[in-house]
Amino acid sequence: MNLNLMATLFPTGYGIVGYHVFKGLCDRGVNVSLFMMGNGAVPWADNAAIDAARRNSALFDPQAPCLKIWHQFSLADRVGRGKFIAFPIFELDPLSKVDVHHMNSTDQILVASHWAKAVCERSGVTVPISVVPLGADPAVFYPAPPRPPGGPCIFLNVGKWEVRKGHDVLVGAFNATFSEADQVELWLLPENFPHSAQEKNAWRDLYLNSKLGRAGKIKICNPAESHVGLADIMRQATCGVFPSRAEGFNLGLLEMMACGKPVIATNYSAHTEYCDAKNCLLIEGSRLVPAKDGRWFDGTRGNWLAWEDAQTQQLCQHMRHVYDHRQTGENINQAGIATARRLTWDQTVATIIQAALA
Question: Are residues 158 and 113 in the same domain?
């Protein structure tokens, strides 16, 4: 099977998805002509495979399906004249007129969750839509042996500095829940390449100048050099915490589940594809508000979950629950492990191939 793939492989969310899909297609024997969007690739990339697929693009098959993994508002260009399949990953509800126009210019849309499919349908997308959940690599993200009772309770948040991801509320909830005397730490992996140094420093100061930041209980980690390094950090943590207002999928959350860690997350947007009361401590909410953060969203592009006192109280209660249980022994999230075993990149790619051949 020949396939023309348009994707970025740069180490952002889209790039991580793009690389896993690319590698999975190659592993399944698909002859990929790779049209890279931007330069650079994730640190663990198979550069020989990338180079070979880029050479293929010189004599691409114009009749082959074209898969574009990219933003829903930028789908005007494509490769060849075969079936055009777009895989956008978006967070807001509803989609804009521009989003819908671009998505309806394709032959088929792939989305990462049933929530996203419903958003598309309500917004006026009329081309066929298939749900293709993303995955976790079981060879990398797996549980460590349980640790004995006692020791620090480490909460880990993985995700770029952003109001959407709840970084404006997490620091206050952490400081309200714990004191300097508690054996607790908050670790963050917040790299955001588009941010200026000034923006990054403002976020860092918000956390490190807080009460528990000054007490040395908040750690801002350097970016992991590889996904193996990321998994090692996850296995050191006690619990993943993700107070997001909206998500296109949230790979870090699923990867924490794969590592057997308890997780705290909002019961909204793409989280609903794989989070439930068995595998996640859920933060409930129902009211939506215009997405506005003064940086990426101006309130006109769609809505996200309202974050109010009720959500902060739930977040604090869940963190205290995890902390109390850590003192008596480590809780392995068996339901989360089972969820991650069901959602793998191999399954993602198999579903993509099925869509391309349909």
Answer: no
Q: How far is CA 132 from CA 7, 75, 202, 279, in A?
A: 16, 18, 37, 20
**143 within domain boundaries:** no
Confidence of residue 79 (pLDDT cuts 50, 70, 90): very high
- pLDDT at 195 (0 to 100): 78
Are 257 and 169 part of one and the same domain?
yes
If pLDDT is split at 50, 70 and 90, which confidence band does 262 have? Answer: very high
Q: Specify whether 45 is located in the same domain as 91.
A: yes
**Is 185 found in the same domain as 325?**
yes
CB 303 within 8 A of CB 290: yes
Report the C-alpha gap between 349 and 224 in whole angstroms. 25
DSSP bridge pairs for 218:
186
Residue 43 belongs to what domain range?
2-135+344-357
In a domain, 91, yes or no: yes
Q: Are 311 and 285 in contact (CB under 8 A)?
A: yes
Question: Among residues 292, 249, 308, which one has the least CA distance to residue 16?
Answer: 249
Q: pTM surpassing 0.85?
A: yes
- Residue given tokens 């963050």 in the structure block: 188
- Residue 88 within a domain: yes
115 and 303 Cβ atoms separated by less than 8 Å: no
What CA–CA distance (Å, rounded) separates 259 from 235?
6
CB 19 within 8 A of CB 42: yes
Q: How far is CA 349 from CA 8, 62, 163, 259, 354, in A?
A: 17, 21, 31, 22, 9
Chain mean position to CA 330: 25
CA distance to 11, 188, 210, per residue, from 193 (Å): 9, 15, 24
320 and 351, same domain (yes or no): no
Are both 66 and 161 inside the same structural domain?
no
**What tokens appear for 146 in the block?**
């349980």
Indicate if 125 and 65 belong to the same structural domain. Answer: yes
Query: Tens of pLDDT along 166-211?
Result: 999 999 999 999 999 999 999 999 976 677 889 999 999 999 999 9
Note whether 66 and 339 are within 8 A (CB): no
Claim to verify: residue 351 and residue 335 sit in the same structural domain:
no
